[in-house]
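Example for tutorial group B:
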C-alpha cells in the first residue's frame, strides 16, 4: 500500500524570492507617487507660512514706515527694548525684527528646503531666535540698506523660496517643491511659480526674470533689488 507524502506548510526559498521581488517592484512604482505627494504637502505648507510672513511685514510697515531694514533696526531696538541681534546680511537678521515686534513663533519663517531639514525650536531669546537653518525664505530689499514698503509696485516680490544652495543670486532650487518656487508679492499674493530648467531663474512677462530691472518691469529704472538669503550651515 502506497503512503501519502505529507506536504509541510511554509514558503520555499524560490517562493520567498518571488514575493520579495514583487514587493520591491510595488515599492518602486509607489515611491514616485509618495514623493510627489510629499513635495505637494511641503509646497502647501510653504505657501501658508509665507502668507503669515506677509501679514507680519504689512503690520510692521504700518508701524515703522517700511519693511525691516537697517534703519528700522534702530527704531525697533528703541521701541521694544529687545536684545535680539539684527546685525548681519541674512534674511534671518531682518526677519528677527518681526519677532521683536510681536511675532510669537519662528515656525512661519521655515519651509522644507534642501538646506532646512529641521523645524525651528521656537526659542526666541537672544542668540537663539532664527538661528542658522531655521529660516527657509529669502528676503528682497529695495537696496543694500533700505527695505521695501507696501506703497511699491504690487507686482514686486518680497519673500521667496527655495534659493539654490541658500545663495542670494536669484537662482532657485527645483528639488523641494517639484520645480516650483514660492513667491510673495507686495499685493499679498503668494504663488508657486515655475523654475526654469536652464538657469534656475523665474521668468516674468516679456522674456524677463524676477530680478530684471528697467522699463516695464516691477522694479522700474530707479531700483536695484537686493536679495538676502537665509543663513545656512557653513555660513
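The residue assignment follows.
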Amino acid at each position: 500500500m502506497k503512503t501519502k507524502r505529507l506536504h509541510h506548510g511554509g514558503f520555499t526559498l524560490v517562493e520567498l524570492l518571488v514575493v520579495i521581488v514583487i514587493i520591491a517592484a510595488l515599492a518602486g512604482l509607489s515611491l514616485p507617487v509618495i514623493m510627489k505627494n510629499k513635495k505637494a504637502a511641503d509646497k502647501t505648507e510653504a505657501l501658508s507660512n509665507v502668507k503669515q510672513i506677509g501679514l507680519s511685514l504689512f503690520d510692521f510697515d504700518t508701524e515703522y514706515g517700511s519693511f525691516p531694514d537697517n534703519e528700522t533696526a534702530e527704531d525697533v531696538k528703541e521701541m521694544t527694548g529687545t536684545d535680539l541681534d539684527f546685525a548681519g546680511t541674512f534674511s534671518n537678521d531682518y526677519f528677527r525684527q518681526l519677532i521683536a515686534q510681536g511675532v510669537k513663533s519662528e515656525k512661519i519663517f521655515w519651509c522644507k528646503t534642501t538646506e532646512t531639514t529641521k523645524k525651528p525650536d521656537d526659542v526666541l531669546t537672544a542668540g537663539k531666535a532664527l538661528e542658522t537653518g531655521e529660516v527657509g525664505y529669502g528676503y528682497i530689499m529695495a537696496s543694500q540698506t533700505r527695505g521695501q514698503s507696501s506703497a511699491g509696485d504690487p507686482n514686486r516680490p518680497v519673500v521667496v523660496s527655495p534659493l539654490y544652495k541658500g545663495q542670494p543670486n536669484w537662482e532657485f532650487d527645483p528639488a523641494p517643491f517639484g520645480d516650483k518656487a514660492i513667491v510673495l508679492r507686495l499685493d499679498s499674493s503668494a504663488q508657486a511659480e515655475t523654475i526654469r530648467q536652464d538657469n534656475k531663474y523665474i521668468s516674468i512677462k516679456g522674456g524677463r526674470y524676477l530680478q530684471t530691472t528697467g522699463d516695464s518691469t516691477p522694479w522700474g529704472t530707479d531700483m536695484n533689488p537686493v536679495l538676502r538669503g537665509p543663513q545656512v550651515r557653513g555660513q
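Strands lie at 138-141, 157-161, 180-185, 190-194, 203-204, 208-209, 226-228. Compare this with the pattern of hydrophobic and polar residues in the output above.
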